[in-house]
Amino acid sequence: MNTQPDRNQPSDGVTPDSTLHIGSEGGVTPEDVVLASGRDVTPANLAWAERKLADEGSAALDKLLP
């Protein structure tokens, strides 16, 4: 019998570390910037995010997050 908890299943409503994602896994996308800004993903907002990323790089996302 396996007594180890399943690392991919949350226990007590807490997301296990093994399933958390961090920014270093891939590049920042325009959709990431839109969502971090609290806006809806629309063509206009994606265009805004693309411009923001072109101007500021991945720091654009850092500036939007707490």
Describe the protein's architecture and organization.
With 66 residues, this protein is an all-alpha fold. The model has no long low-confidence stretch (mean pLDDT 79). The longest helix has 14 residues, at 43-56. It has a domain at 28-64. The termini are far apart. Helix 1 crosses helix 2 (43-56). The protein is elongated, with a radius of gyration of 17 Å. 41% of the residues lie in helices and 0% in strands. The protein has three helices and no strands.
Order of helices and strands: HHH
Could you tell me the strand content as a percent range? Answer: under 5%
Runs in which pLDDT lies below 50 for 5 or more consecutive residues are: none
Average predicted local confidence, pLDDT: 79
Number-wise, the strands total 0
Tell me the distance between the termini: 43 Å
Oligomer: single chain
How does the major sheet shape up?
Answer: none
Net shape: elongated
The class by helix and strand makeup works out as mainly alpha
- Please give the radius of gyration in angstroms: 17 Å
Key structural traits:
3 helices, 0% strand, mainly alpha, 66 residues
Write the layout of secondary structure elements.
Elements: H1 30-36, H2 43-56, H3 59-64
Helix pairs in contact: 1-2
Summarize the structure.
With 66 residues, this protein is an all-alpha fold. The protein is 41% helix and 0% strand. Residues 1-30 are annotated as: Disordered.
